[in-house]
Amino acid sequence: MIWISLLVVIALGAAAFLGGRVVARRRFAGVRSHSRPGQFGAYALIWVAVPALAVLILGGVFAAPLERQLTAAGTPANVAALEPFRREAFFADAHRLGRGEPALQIWEQPLAEQLPVEARRMVRVERTLQWGGAAAALLAAVMGGLFAFSQIRPNVRARNRVEGWVWGALFICSAVAVLTTVGIIASLAFDAFRFFQHVPPIDFLFGTQWSPQIAIRADQVGSSGAFGAVPLFVGTLLIMAIAMFVAGPIGLLSAIYLSEYAGRTARAVIKPVLEILAGVPTVVYGFFAALTVGPALRVFFNEIGLFLIGGPLDGLGQYLALVQNQMALTAGAVMGIMLIPFVSSLSDDILNAVPQSLRDGSFAMGATKSETVKRVLLPAALPGIAGALLLAVSRAIGETMIVTMAAGLAANLTFNPLDTVTTVTVQIVTLLTGDQEFNSAKTLSAFGLGLTLFLVTLMLNVIAHRIVQTYREQYD
Q1: DSSP 298-328
Q2: Which contacts qualify for 228-232: CB closer than 8 Å, 24 or more apart?
Q3: Is residue 276 helix, strand or coil?
C-alpha cells in the first residue's frame, strides 16, 4: 500500500506541475507576470507533493503504535489476562495467520478458537489504517493543489517561493547532518561520563592493564577489572603505522607513475584494476590475512628461527620459531594493501589537477621529469596528498574486521609487530556484542574508548590541517 501511495503522489505531483504550467500560460497570455509558467508549475508540484509525503511519513511512524493500541482495545478478557510475553506471542501469531502464514500449534482452547478471529480483526485494523492514511495523503494533496492553483496570478512571486522551498530543503539537509554529529557526540559524552564515574580518567588514559571485568559475586576470582587503555592505543597506532608504511609509499608512487609516466593504454588498465581493491569487503581482506598472509609469514619467520637456533642468536631463533599466525604485522600489511587505492586514486587526481604550465615551466628550465615531479609537482600537490594520507589513516584507525581475524584480541602492551595485539575499535565491538548491561563499567568502557578515539582523531585532523595550511603554496 505504501508503494502504491508513493506512486500516486508522484503521479499527482507530475500532473500538478504540468497543470500549473498550462494554467499559468493561459492566464498570463498577453500579460506580463513576475514568474515564468514553469516556476508556477514547480510551485504547484511542491504544494501537492510535500503535504502528501508529510502525511505518509507521519502515517508510517505512528501506524504501528496506533495499530497496537486499537488491537489491544478490543482484546478479549482471557487474552488480556495472559502474561505479557504470552500475550505478545498470541498477537504475533494472529498477525502471522492474518498474513496467510501458518500459525503455531501451541495454543489450547479457547485461545485456539479465538486466534483466527483475532487474525481477521487485526487484518481489518491494519487495512483501515492503510486506507485511512492513503485517503489522508490524497486529501492533503488535493487541498495543497487547490491552494497552489488559487495562487497562479501575475503578481505572485512564484520563483521566490520555490527558491524559498529549495532553501528550506537544503537547510534541513544541512541541519540533519549537524544534528546527527551533535547527537553522536552527546551520546558518547553522556555514557562516557557515566563510565568515568566508575573509573578515574587518569587510570583509564594512562593505565597499562586492560582487563574489563565485572564481579558476579563478592568472592569471585579476578572480579576486579583493569581499565587501562594504553595497550589498546599502542596496538591501534602500531597496526596503523604498519598499514601506512605499506600503503603510503606504494600508493603515492603508483599515483606518480599513473599521472606522469604511464601511457593511455597502461593507465586505462592499471587504474581500474587498482581501484577494484577499494571495492573488496573488509571481511574478505580478513579471510586473506587469516588464511594466506598469516600462515605465510609464520612459515617464513619459523624457518628463520629454526636456522638461528643453536647459533649466537639462539634466543632470537627460539622466539621466531614460536611465531603464530595472528600478529600485528599480518593485520597491518593486509590493511595497507586495502588502503593502497585510497592513497593512489586521490593522489593521482590531485597530481593531475596541478596546472600543466608548471610542468612546462620546469621542463623549459632544463629539469628532467623526475626533478619536475620531486621539486614542482609534489610541493604543489602537498595539501591534497596530505588529505589522501589522512583519509587512509582514518580508515586504518577505524578498521575492525581485519584486526579481529588477523591480530587477535589480546591487549598486549608491545611495539613488536610479531606479537598479538588488539585495537580500540575491536574492543568496542567486543564489549557491545550480545546482551549487555549498560549500568556496568565493563559495557560503559566502550563509550569511554569511543570518546577518546573521537577526540584523538579530531586532534590529528586539526594538526594535519595546520600543517597543510603552513606548507600550502598557491599557484595560478
Answers
A1: HHHHHHHHHHHTTSTTHHHHHHHHT--S--H
A2: 228/203, 228/204, 229/204, 229/205, 229/424, 229/448, 229/449, 229/452, 230/205, 230/206, 230/413, 231/411, 231/412, 231/413, 231/421, 231/422, 232/411, 232/422, 232/423, 232/424, 232/427, 232/449
A3: helix
Owner of C-alpha cell 598486549: 412
Q: Using the predicted structure, report yes or no on whether residue 221 has a pLDDT greater than 60.
A: no
**Residue-wise pLDDT tens digits, 75-124:** 777 676 677 777 777 777 777 777 777 666 666 677 777 777 777 777 77
pLDDT beyond 50 at 170: yes
Beta carbons of 395 and 425 less than 8 angstroms apart:
no
CA distance 201 to 227: 10
Provide the pLDDT confidence category of residue 467 given band limits of 50, 70 and 90: low
The pLDDT of residue 1 is above 70 = no
Amino acid symbol at 312: P
Selection from 390, 380, 392 nearest residue 256 by Cα: 380
CB 43 within 8 A of CB 23: no
Number of H helices, E strands in the chain: 20, 2
| Interval 315-348: pLDDT, tens | 888 888 888 888 899 999 999 999 998 888 888 8
Pick the CATH number of 210-215+223-471 from 1.10.3720.10, 3.40.120.10, 3.30.70.890, 1.10.1670.10: 1.10.3720.10
N-to-C CA span, the chain: 58
Q: Are 274 and 345 in contact (CB under 8 A)?
A: yes
What span, in angstroms and rounded, lies between the C-alpha atoms of 466 and 476?
A: 22
**C-alpha angle with apex 177: 171 to 179, nearest 5 degrees?**
95
Unique residue bearing C-alpha cell 567486543: 430
pLDDT category at 216 given cuts 50, 70, 90 is very low
Q: What is the average per-residue pLDDT within 116-138?
A: 80
pLDDT of residue 105: 63
Ranges of each domain in the chain = 2-156, 157-191, 210-215+223-471
Q: What is the mean pLDDT of the chain?
A: 83
- Crossing angle for the helix pair 328-353 and 382-398, nearest 10 degrees? 150
Q: What is the pTM assigned to this prediction?
A: 0.71
Sign of torsion over alpha carbons 241, 247, 250, 255: negative
